[in-house]
Amino acid sequence: MTAPPSGSLLFDTAIYIRFCRGEGYPWLEDTRVFGRTVLTAVVAAELYAGTRTHQEKRYLDALCQAYQASGHFSFPRAEAWTDTGMLLSRARKTLGQMDFVHHFRDLLIALEAVRADATLITENARDFERCRTLLASSGRKMKLQNLA
């Protein structure tokens, strides 16, 4: 993909990691893309967990501050946390055993994309397709773009 789709965007953690390592997605530097991008605290937390140096942490601090200043920093509200638990319970009953911790974060990210009416951009379409199916079972529609 040479450029992201139109409208609001929410990038999965892996997109930021690849960009920060210089492995792709140069359009993330475009201020027009930044202006329509939402950063969720769930992705920020995953990024902070993966920082290896103080310089990486400072860069992430600046990124989060920029999103907060633009009004595009989101965080899951209380109902998103409880909805996530209920949706995963439903999934476990219909799909069988799941890696709860991994899917919990993905589903929180997906719910934030739905709430922001943003296209979720990912390299992990398989897991987020599962999220989209779960959300559809509760009447929510998630827009998804796979880059892999």
Helix and strand layout, with pairings?
Layout: E1 9-11, H1 13-20, H2 31-34, E2 37-40, H3 41-50, H4 54-70, E3 73-74, H5 78-95, H6 100-115, E4 119-122, H7 125-136, E5 143-146
Parallel strand pairs: 1-2, 1-4, 2-3, 4-5
Defining traits:
single chain; Rossmann fold; 148 residues; globular
CATH homologous superfamily grouping: 5'-nuclease
Mean pLDDT score: 90
DSSP strand tally: 5
User: From N to C, what is the helix and strand string?
Assistant: EHHEHHEHHEHE
Cα-based radius of gyration, to the nearest Å: 15 Å
| Quaternary class | single chain
Please give the domain count.
Answer: 1
Q: N- to C-terminal separation?
A: 9 Å
The largest sheet is: 5 strands, parallel
CATH class: Alpha Beta
Number of helices: 7
% residues in beta strands = 5-15%
**Within the CATH hierarchy, at the fold level, what is the topology?**
Rossmann fold
Shape: globular
Largest sheet strand order: 3-2-1-4-5
Structure notes:
- The protein is an alpha/beta fold and about 150 residues long.
- It is globular and about 45 Å long.
- Helices cover about 55% and strands about 10% of the residues.
- About 30% of the residues are buried.
- Helix 5 packs across helix 6 (about 100-115) and helix 6 (about 100-115) packs across helix 7.
- The protein has a single domain, classed as 5'-nuclease (Rossmann fold), CATH 3.40.50.1010.
